[in-house]
Amino acid sequence: MKGIYKIFSRKKLRLYIMCGLSFFVVALPISCSKSEENNKITILWKDKRAVGISLSGKFAATLAPDSLIKLLEVRLLTSEKPVSILGEYSVENSRIIFTPLIPFTRGLHYEVSLRGQRLNLFDIPPADSADAPALLGIFPSQDSLPENLLKVYLHFSHPMREGQSGQYVVLVKNNIDTIKGAFLNLQPELWNENRTILTLWLDPGRIKRDLQPNKLLGAPLQRNAGYQLLVLAPWQDKLGGTLPKTYSKSFVTIGRDSLSPNPEYWKIVTPKTGSTQPLNIDLGESLDYSLLNETLTIRTVDDITIPGKWIIGIDEKTCQFIPGKRWLSGHYKLHIETRLEDLAGNNLNRPFDRDVTRKETKVHSEDFVEVLFQIKD
Amino acid sequence: MKKMYFLLAVISAGFLLLANTTSFMRGKYGFVVGTPEIKSINSLAFGPDGVLFVGDSKSAMVFAIDTKDAAVTSQAPAVEIKNIDQKIAALLGTEAQNITIQDIAVNPLSKAVYCAVQHSDGTPVLFKIEGEKITAVSTKNIPFSSLALNNAPAENAKDKRGNSVRVSAISDIGFADGKVLVSGLSGQEFNSTFRSIPFPFTNKQDEATLEIYHAAHGKYETLSPIRTFTTAEINGKKYLVASYTCTPLVLFPLDELKPGTHVKGRTVAEMGSGNSPIDMVTMKKGNESFLMMANSSRPVFKVKYKSIETYQGSLTTPVEESFATAGVDFVSLPVTNVIQMDKLDDMRMILLQRRSNGSLDLWTSSERYL
User: A7 and A27: one domain?
Assistant: First the structure.
């Protein structure tokens, strides 16, 4: 038996080393009675999540590893009938480790029982208010927006809990009327990979001309009106921290934008040869923040991409390219992918909703367009 | 000479062993045994032989996993679990408010219900439901294969804090005609990323990416992302029946979904304003087949495929304002707030419904709904 135990223990140890799991171990002593004092529970933390518990005490040495799942139970303290939490038991250095399928929840209370008798209790402390998330930005950042605005980006400091925007994002007209159904209720929501950027679409069915939602409810935004976009507390981040306050962005609506952005009208201010000064581009109108970050590159005439960094300017009306090395004199290309959109979803190839009965709104199908410029001595 | 024979025998045995190892390593459908790195489960669909397709928006991947649950159950038992969110939450050691049921899919062979759950911290968990029994499905050391969706972000597409600004999600997945169908939404471009991917997955990028347009009443044309879809046979021809984010119901012949094509769906209905379709399934009773559609703010709709067949128009005239909807006729069933829906057999569906008393129940519809 001892042999089996040793093999099991070594195997588990190896597994942990192999997985490269480094736990931050924080002891949380809880004492309720003398017997409970002897049965110590330590919460295992990883990335501020309570990913498991470690049990130590006299009983731990007496249990066979393969009987743990039958004898031990970790349960949520609740008024309902208690249920064993799903997870895995293992033995490591005479301690029993329980790893639940999902981390223990902040602010909840749990118990561990052996053969139906309570061994001890443990609490998972609520999230530290110092770790609270913040809303870093709302894009578009301009305060006058087209009435057919298509999308809004929210940038958070921490990865946020998904599926909550319907509850915590509100659009108010003239400080009085809450606009119901302004944003498309999408499940799943549109997040970036680490859940810090959320895209909200103003209901496209209401923006597209002649569709039923557009005819019955009208567009979500009306021209020449004042709006407030509110992002409400206490939206939770994925670790249980909450937005500490309500954030708001006020804007007024101007006319409809039905025209594709045209790079022919952009103004490029070129830097000096030999410098690392930025290349400045005046876009003439606000364009989509995220797509500006993705669709622009500077290339040589031989199509070699110049390494560097893009910085999007105020109100997304300008952008700067800071080269990774000094500019050499010569001819260059500003390469723009045609999927770049303005605030109303018009891209370089076609407007958002094209009137097919009008011949002048032709659709282009190029993947990119290029604007030539020269760096002079 | 004897030594030579012995050596040859050893070498042959070695090769045989190696061949066996190789077939073990890469089994049926090109699966390998391992632990797939599933970061989120947004969408589920079953393929052949108990293969479950998992749409993972977070890692922009589709996983095919062998559930080893391929025994045929001819008489599918009805499932009825009240307060299923509370029951699953208790098994996970948390409260119902901290979990979300992302999707359900019925295994067409075993008739077991698979359920994707997400914890508030983003951890995905897969459950299997048989009768009243809810068990977790382990994704450790299982046969699987995966495919990365081809939307790698540009290298410089990062914000000031170094976060990728690329925003996307898998809106639905399905399996038809040996192909995995994946509809995706981009958080940046108002565009459709609909893919038809041959299964078993290969390294070749022979998937079809379509440009899908929507024409509103013959006047305005836009690119249109697909939100949910099903497949059906109408007049002997296979179709993709899809619903856009802007609610119209559209048909595409499956054989026209070819790589790089510009496809315009035939709009057969607008399903009402302020509403979004959530799930669609195709049901059958006798010789008649039906499209069942769950909605965000409407009851479940039932559309006869016969009506779609006979409706040859394409909503070319503007909708009269007094009508709630336009296009083919449909029936509203007395079932509201259905969050997820899948087909149990030809005549019964599994529904996840938020009841008027607030309870989230999983239950089986009877034939009388058809």
Answer: yes
Interval B333-357 mean pLDDT: 94
Residues A17 and A95 in one domain: yes
Same domain, A223 and A330: no
Question: Is the pLDDT higher at A185 or at A282?
Answer: A282
List A residues 164-203 in contact with B (Cβ-Cβ < 8 A).
Answer: 180-181, 184-199, 201, 203
- Identify the CA nearest to A195 among candidates B59, B225, B115: B59
Q: Can you tell me whether residue B88 is helix, strand or coil? A: helix
Compare CB distances from B121 to A215, A239, A295 and report the shortest one's residue: A239
Do A162 and A228 lie in a common domain?
yes
- Residue-wise pLDDT for A252-310, tens only, equals 999 999 899 999 999 999 999 999 999 999 999 999 999 999 899 999 999 999 999 99
**Burial environment of residue A264 by CB neighbours within 10 A (0 to 12, 13 to 18, 19 or more):** exposed
Residue B167, both tokens:
């925003």
- How many CA atoms does the CB half-sphere of B28 hold within 13 Å? 9
- Whether residues A238 and B121 touch (CB distance < 8 A) is answered with yes
What is the Cβ-side half-sphere exposure of residue B33, based on CA atoms within 13 angstroms? 8
Residue B186, strand partner residues: B168
Give me the residue label for tokens 């999540």: A49
Residue A346 contacts B, CB cutoff 8 Å: no
- Domain CATH for A222: 2.60.40.3710
Chain B contact set for A101 (CB, 8 A): 92, 123, 125, 136
Are the C-beta atoms of residues A287 and A265 closer than 8 Å to each other?
Answer: no
Q: For A78-111, what is each residue's pLDDT tens digit?
A: 877 889 999 999 988 889 999 999 999 999 999 9
Nearest to B242 by CA among B255, B225, B218: B225
Q: Which residues of A194-232 are buried (b: 16+ CB within 10 A; e: fewer)?
A: bbbbbbbbbbbbbbbbbbbbbbbbebbbeeeeebbbebe
> Which tens digit of pLDDT belongs to each residue from B65-98?
999 999 999 888 999 999 999 999 999 999 999 9
ipTM exceeds 0.90, yes or no: no
CA distance A358 to A201: 27
The DSSP 8-state label assigned to residue B255 in this structure reads G
Task: Check: CB of residue B157 under 8 Å from CB of residue B166.
Answer: yes
Q: What would the DSSP string read from start to end of A101-132?
A: SSPBPTT-EEEEEETTEEEEEEEPPPPPGGG-
Considering CB atoms only, which of B86, B100, B191 is closest to A163?
B100
3-state secondary structure of A374: strand
- Yes or no, beta carbons of B95 and A80 under 8 Å apart: no
Domain that holds residue A167: 130-254
Considering the domain architecture, whether residues A238 and A342 belong to the same structural domain is answered as no
- Tell me the shortest Cα–Cα distance from B246 to chain A, in angstroms: 4
**Does residue A357 sit at the B interface (CB-CB below 8 Å)?**
yes
- Clarify whether residues A288 and A334 are in a common domain: yes
CA-CA-CA-CA dihedral for A34, A40, A41, A46, to nearest 10: 150
In a mutational test of the A interface, the residue from B101, B139, B165 whose CB has the highest number of chain A CBs within 10 Å is B165
Count of structural domains, chain A: 3
Identity of the amino acid at B212 = I
Residues A182 and A287 in one domain: no
Same domain, A99 and A159: no
